[in-house]
Amino acid sequence: MDLPKLAIAALGGTVSMQARNAGEGVIPTVSGEALLASVPQLTTLARVTVETLGLLPSASLNFGCLLSVLSWAKYQVEQGAVGVVITQGTDTLEEAAVFFDYLWDCDEPLVLTGAMRSAKQAGADGPANVLDACRVALAENSRRRGVQVVMNGQIHQARCVRKTDSLALQAFSSPIFGPAGLLVENHVGYLCPSVPHSVLPLPQHTTHKVALLEASLSADTLLLENILKLGYDGLVIAGFGAEHVSESWAAMIEVIAGKIPVIIATRTGSGSTAQHSYGFAGSELDLIRKGALMAGFLCPRKARILLWLLLGCQRQDELARYLNDNSRLQP
Ligand code: ASP
Asked: According to the UniProt record, what class of enzyme is this (predicted)?
């Protein structure tokens, strides 16, 4: 039987980590080829092309690397791959996933996975996650669903998923929306229909900068006072609660929003920003009046990526529309 073609790229992360010597910390050293040797069952499911595009801890990935990976993945689809799997570190998986999702215009699934336990640790989850991710990438019902994250038997939409635990095996969740699907006895099943998602053109330039600052109790305004001088092109604030900041931050945000786009998201880890509930200085009504935009359900990190991508293709005027799209995200 002619097996479907599947492309896999390894970027590093815990799934590719082991210690060089006993007693040392783990570092990314396991190539994509070696990773595949841990899932021999895959040869019965697909003809696999594997490449090691990087061996980095995911904190050291950057948008430039992700753009190269994206063009590699699109090339694999042009060459006949029915799906693409990318393995990487879990620390920035939620950001990489949404970055790709805003740029992935193929029907073929692009699936990201990683591991919480390194290759030699008891109960290493890498092989199971890689095999699950391949099953999702090969499944007919995964087509036209954009980018998905597969971890611990669950499938999550790129725009909803967050790393919500630092070390547990069940480290990923999609607050409010829940997983988009599950793997049950190797069967890929979805819990909700696919949501049409807006795709952006590739950025024409990549040197612009978007800052992300979190509001905290009794915080000074020094960083805010210097944002424009430092040459930032956009600002995301992870605000308190349903999106609130102090009166002194609100005054600075008004000055900044007069010059560059400012998005306010919630720092709570779940839920949407408000639009018209509170009226005090530093509330959403006040900040909207001062020129800031509300992130809706988009978390601060994903809002920063959206703004960076929009600035890169000079579509920042459409920011409100894109944020609004996310506020209406359906599970
Ligand atoms: N702890 C991380 C991981 O899960 C390391 C990284 O993100 O590279 O892969």
From this structure: hydrolase
